[in-house]
Amino acid sequence: MTLVITDLSGVTKAELSGRLDTANVNELELKFSAGVMPKSQPTIVDLTQVTFIASLGIRMLLTAARGLSRRGAKLVMFGANPAVIEIFEMSALSDIIPVVPTEADAIAAVSG
Amino acid sequence: MDKGISLELPKALTSVEEGRLAVLAYLEPFGVASAVINRLEVVLEELVSNVVRHAQDATHVRLSAAMFENGVCLCVEDDGAAFDPLASAGPQPFDTLEDAHIGGLGIPLVKRLSRSLAYERAGNVNLVRAVIAT
Question: N or C: which end of chain A has fewer CB within 10 A?
Fold first, then answer.
């Protein structure tokens, strides 16, 4: 499981890869939150390389999206594979955090 | 029905991955669709990590899996104090980020992913049995 955070002129991009399972999220959660929250700017989360997600991973994304929303910034996810999307839909996460196909879609969505 | 596999694992978070790999190896010859495998992995992840994180007094967790004609049965047992994880009402539906409940997302997810799901206190063990449709 890796996390790469970059700044795309005013948009934070968080690139996750691997399995967002309980053990990995336990290790990654603080780093993820420390990487995206202090910037308080529109954030896109790249899930292209994420192969699995369970409830703790959903909680991590939800917590970040809520924190950013309180500071007036949007969080949008993109590139999720069908397995990950199914879990988002079943947990109703996709109703409250936008999941779009591509990075360009995500940038358009957070900037709007 | 295939006789399946059963393994006893320590009450540790590493048991989730160990159990997952064992179940995957067992299911490999059956050619189960990847979407079904993913649902099964989520159910396994939630049920086993729930025991590891919350089961009071438990010393181990037993994971069993067996292939049916039209489903995979996954059974998670622990020897902790009697506790029915399925009894909690779970988070209410949410429409906005502010309404969303941050915790307790796992069991509702397991309920939606399983075709059938049951808890039983059998002797001194808690037993949760989930069937994932193939």
Answer: C
ipTM of the complex: 0.93
Q: Which B residues, 59 through 88, put their C-beta within 8 Å of a C-beta on chain A?
A: none
Task: Kindly state the helix (H) or strand (E) to which residue A32 belongs, with its residue range.
Answer: helix A22-36
Are the beta carbons of A21 and B100 separated by less than 8 Å?
no
Residues of B (108-127) whose Cβ lies below 8 Å from A: 108-109, 112-113
Could you state, in chain order, the average pLDDT of each consecutive group of 10 residues for chain B (134 residues)? 89 95 96 96 96 90 94 96 83 71 83 96 96 96
B9: domain CATH number?
3.30.565.10
Q: Which CATH number do you get for residue A80? A: 3.30.750.24
Of residues A21, A58, A96, nearest to B105 (C-beta)? A58
Q: Please indicate whether, in this complex, the C-beta atoms of A22 and B93 are within 8 angstroms of each other.
A: no
Which residues have CB under 8 Å from A38's CB, separation 6+? none
> What is the rounded distance in angstroms from the CA atom of residue B56 to the CA atom of residue B89?
20
Using an 8 Å CB-CB cutoff, list chain B residues near A53: 42
Total number of domains in chain B: 1
> What is the tally of structural domains in chain A?
1
Q: How far apart are CA A57 and CA A93, in angstroms?
A: 11
Contact at 8 Å (CB) between A36 and A5? yes
Are A87 and A77 within 8 A, CB to CB?
A: no
**Has residue A109 got a pLDDT over 90?**
yes
Which range is least confidently modeled, A49-58, A92-101, B38-47? A92-101
